[in-house]
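Minimal example, chain plus zinc ion.
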Amino acid sequence: MRADHRAGGTAADARSVTADGPPAPETGLLTPVTDDDGAPFWEYAARGELRVQTCTDCDEPRFPPRPCCPHCQSFTAHWQRTSGRGRIWSFVVPHPPLLPAYAAQAPYNTIVVELAEAPRIRLVGNLVAAADAALNSVDPAKLRIGAPVKAVFHRTPDGPTVPRWVLERP
Ligand SMILES: [Zn+2]
């Protein structure tokens, strides 16, 4: 009977029951909001490819994605596949006060990576031990400006697949 089923728990109750176990390390982390210009970036990331919007007329890569080339004003562009390799250009090690989900993993790192094929393109992300590892899975003492890194792709539970970074020489 329906009443019996409801007594067994609503959908919301079911979620709270599953939450009784250890929480997923990324519960509550923010996920990117996609837009039309950047949609291909996330679609390629979901396939494990790091691609950069590139002007078809002057061949200049650009980021973040936008309709017009800032160098030659062309509106013609394509998505150039990269090797996914780069170097740490800068980093920070956040400490509380932070949003609760981030405070739970602090200290972790946020890095800025310059891409090997397009050094003027710099992406913000996290250096992790593996694609699905926690934000604090790398000892902050291992962070070095200039360290070679490689993109890995992490499927977020509520948002797009996001590039993260691992050290080329852990
Ligand atoms: Zn151009």
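Residues 2-167 form one domain. The two ends are 57 Å apart (CA to CA).
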